[in-house]
Amino acid sequence: MLAALLISAAHGQAEDRLAVHLRSCAGCHGADGNSAVPGTPSIAAQPQIFLENYLVMTREGIRGTQLMQSLLKGMPDREIVALAKHFSALKAKPAREPVDKKLFQRGKSVAAANRCASCHLPDFRGREQMPRLAGQREEFLAEAMLAYRQNRRPGGDTIMAASLYGIAEQDFKALAHYFSRLK
């Protein structure tokens, strides 16, 4: 009986901690995982493995902002897995701003020529450790690509940096516009 009460209490504490973490995440990334904060990525519908890896690397001080690092400091793996599972199950929402048809088509052409779909999948929903690009915040994507190109994305994937090599920086805006408008 005592063991059952202790297990029940521990489970309740874990649920309380998860609720606190979710409220913290919602402050920047949105309660539904779709950020309304410029420069802050949407995390809804990101692949669970991608989110787990990113959160662990952030907790360990390898990636992410100082704020994210401080929020994740000391967080147990089971809580990181719970957060990743939660946000990966949410629905992504594409940009609501109008489509610039010329910029969209340029981004589509650049994505096809550089085989972006070979890693991120043809609908750009991402998979495993590759993030979802479809519906991601436009300005976040453009800045992330530039940061990869300029080697200022701490803990960044070297394959991504190499993949962006040879793409004109002005095309990052077109790629970001294209990806952000996909559903």
Q: Can you tell me the residue ranges where pLDDT is under 50 for at least 5 consecutive residues?
A: 2-11
Report the structural category: mainly alpha
CATH topology (level 3) name of the largest domain:
Cytochrome Bc1 Complex, Chain D, domain 2
The percent range for strand residues is under 5%
CA radius of gyration:
18 Å
Number of domains: 2
Largest sheet: none
The succession of helices and strands, N to C, reads HHHHHHHHH
CATH architecture annotation name of the largest domain: Orthogonal Bundle
Terminus-to-terminus distance: 51 Å
Determine the number of helices (DSSP H or I, runs of at least 4 residues): 9
* Beta-strand segment tally: 0
**pLDDT averaged residue by residue:** 89
The CATH first-level class of the largest domain comes to: Mainly Alpha
Shape: globular
Identify the CATH homologous superfamily of the largest domain: Cytochrome c-like domain
Helix content: 55-70%
